[in-house]
Write a structure and sequence with these properties.
Phage tail protein, Phage_T4_Gp19, CHP02241, 1 helix, Pnp Oxidase, Chain A, about 5% helix
């Protein structure tokens, strides 16, 4: 029996193809939700706090400060599913329903999970309806903006896509 071959890593001399931006899915509370066409805003920002070192007034040091997470914008095709709309309406009514949301990057074949970003305690903060135009043949795309309290990145571990 042969040992499994580890996946190549991005080291000097090893070329590893980057993942394709279109090969992803979105899970809300570990349930595949809708057909999302775009995800924007994954990020984290650490404020920089500057201070002058005691005894050496000309040296300005920097330390990390407050951590913030920008809202994540989701774009998805309009369907008759009311799941995301109902989630939004709980926030409109002042009863925020926080959920864990995962953006899952799939391998090149689109069959296994390569990595994921987890949005912790996400809730809908904004919705925009699809532009409607009788002269267009475009898909009707809605926009949902999620606020969240944290971002985690996990290696996919070869999980099969749901």
């Amino acid at each position: 029996m042969t040992a499994p071959v580890p996946a190549p890593s991005a080291q000097p001399g090893n070329w590893v193809d980057p993942y394709r931006a279109y090969n992803f899915k979105l899970l809300i509370n570990n349930v595949n939700e809708g057909h999302f066409t775009e995800v924007q805003g994954l990020g984290v920002k650490v404020e920089r706090i500057s201070y002058r070192e005691a005894g050496n007034g000309s040296v300005v040091r920097a330390i990390p400060g407050r951590v913030t997470y920008p809202p994540v914008t989701l774009r998805f095709g309009l369907t008759n599913s009311a799941e995301l709309w109902n989630w939004l309406m709980t926030a409109v009514e002042g009863k925020v329903s926080r959920r864990n949301v995962s953006i899952v990057m799939l391998d090149p074949a689109g069959t296994a999970e390569a990595l994921r970003w987890n949005l912790i305690n996400a809730w809908p903060q904004e919705w925009s309806g699809a532009p409607l135009d009788a002269m267009s043949r475009e898909l009707a795309i809605e926009t949902l903006v999620l606020a969240h309290e944290g971002l985690q990145r996990e290696a996919g571990g070869g999980r099969a896509a749901a």
